[in-house]
């Protein structure tokens, strides 16, 4: 039993052969290395030999640390690290100048451990920081002038910096389920009217617990939007007979049949 537990903690070992067999060609012709849901606990060093890939998916594992050697992936345009156990990111991530998609949602990142070098990702279009432990957002993220979509949901934020709210190309923002003050909520609503609700992770990419949280919240929102009137407000017709599923289309015929069986 102890051996099995130790094996689980160690995680699955990824060899270069496994990594090579996990490379796929994406819809735009790029090379995508997909090592998601592999039970990995440490960053597999062997993949540094595949540094010419365009996309890297290490999501839904148990990785706690990304090494500084991530900077070797200079061609990388798409990096998915969501649903791991990351507590920090290396500053070297800021050297990935071709990166346009970065998903680090559902980890254990704090504001203190967000590298300032994130603001160097000048070509970044999509950034997901949701489901972490962020109590504030660095004003330096206002340097991401190409950013179009930003996820900040399920953190402990009380405000969003003006430098971020006023990003020139920002179209979609999800900052749901943060403890914003009432005045801050109104301020956000007034200043970000052009921004719509955004979920940066497709349902198929969420773990079971995260998917349930999102579905429950969606159901709550739908109930609020479609709010059905209470029973006390509904008109009462005690003498009205309701046809069952076998009733004919002609309701008059149905009523006559019920009166004269």
UniProtKB/TrEMBL annotation:
**Gene3D superfamilies to which the protein is assigned, alphabetical:** Ribonuclease Inhibitor
Pfam families noted in UniProt = LRR_14 (PF23598)
Q: Which GO terms describe its cellular component?
A: cytoplasm
Entry annotated with the keyword Glycoprotein: no
Region described as Disordered: 224-245
Q: Which UniProt keywords apply?
A: Leucine-rich repeat, Repeat
Record-annotated Disease resistance R13L4/SHOC-2-like LRR domain positions: 70-201
Spell out the Low complexity composition-biased ranges: 228-243
Q: Which InterPro entries match?
A: Leu-rich_rpt (IPR001611), Leu-rich_rpt_typical-subtyp (IPR003591), LRR_dom_sf (IPR032675), LRR_domain-containing (IPR050216), LRR_R13L4/SHOC2-like (IPR055414)
Where does the chain cross the membrane?
Answer: none
Supply the name of the protein: Leucine rich repeat containing 18
What organism is listed for this UniProt entry?
Otus sunia
